[in-house]
Sequence to fold (204 residues):
Amino acid sequence: MADETDLLNDALGQCGQAPITAIGDGTPNANWCKTFYVPIRQAMLRSAIWQFAEDRAVLASDPTPPAFEFAFRYAILPTILRIKEYNGDLITPQMSPFTASPNYWMNVAGRYIIESGYLLTNDASVKITYMKDEPNCAKWDALFYQLVASILASKLARAINKDVSLGATLMKEALDLWLPFAAAVAGQEHTVLPYKTDDLLWGR
Fold:
């Protein structure tokens, strides 16, 4: 099973560089990996919905409410990279859009915003599913692994090899091949919900 060192050596190998024994082994190659790796991993985890990095939480309300407009605020922990689903007290997910009141749509459209590391809302309780920072490569999808390795290789090619052309080629491969491929496959791995519409539309 691939681990962090395997991933870093994959990226170094794409640049024709010597492998490392660990990210903290003190070699120049390891130091460059340490500089780039974590920000790349977190950015790519935020870029799409990855099932292996999903988690859920009930957020704790902050004792200091927002100054105006919203009644509550909730701290967003650094490990929460992207909110996928939000379920507040004011939202009724099963309500038909054709029978809902105007206030329902106002709540859906503006039920929360994120400001300065806080989620602001009028909901007295907040449940979310989210993308977390998952550092364990053994839990990653194989396509996501290739995506991160290619982007890291692109950065390393510029920093170590001083080869802008190789860096651009590796980045193009990552963004044109691995990212859409990985995101498309990840998007297919969930229950498909039927599209619901009002009965009157079927009579037209």
